[in-house]
Give the backbone structure.
Amino acid sequence: MKTDIHSYITKSRHTAWEPLVEKGIHYTGIFVKSLRYDEASGRSKTILLKFEAGAKYPYHHHPAGEEIFVLHGEAIVEGALLQEGDYLYTPPGFKHAVYSPNGATLLFVVPEEVEILP
């Protein structure tokens, strides 16, 4: 384990938003910043997602659950409106899509890779 606290700080304001692309699929209107990359799993487990107005992430589930905190804007998850300051924990296997009618910035903690559903 590294003992320098600076090794664990991510200066997100100095990191560019990247288009969200997973397994070769580009999700139009959704952008990502990695906050915590896990070397062992080879993926980011804590991210920021920015949704442009009208952007949608498809129906999916998280084998190990997920946590969402709304930093800005609004998002709709399985019919529930989440607004700035709202927090949502979805348990393992919970199925849902995410839609933002007016745009949003969300903090996600995702312990395992998402699985897109038909």
Notes: The chain has one domain: 27-116. The domain at 27-116 is CATH 2.60.120.10 (Jelly Rolls). Residues 33 and 101 are 21 Å apart (CA to CA).
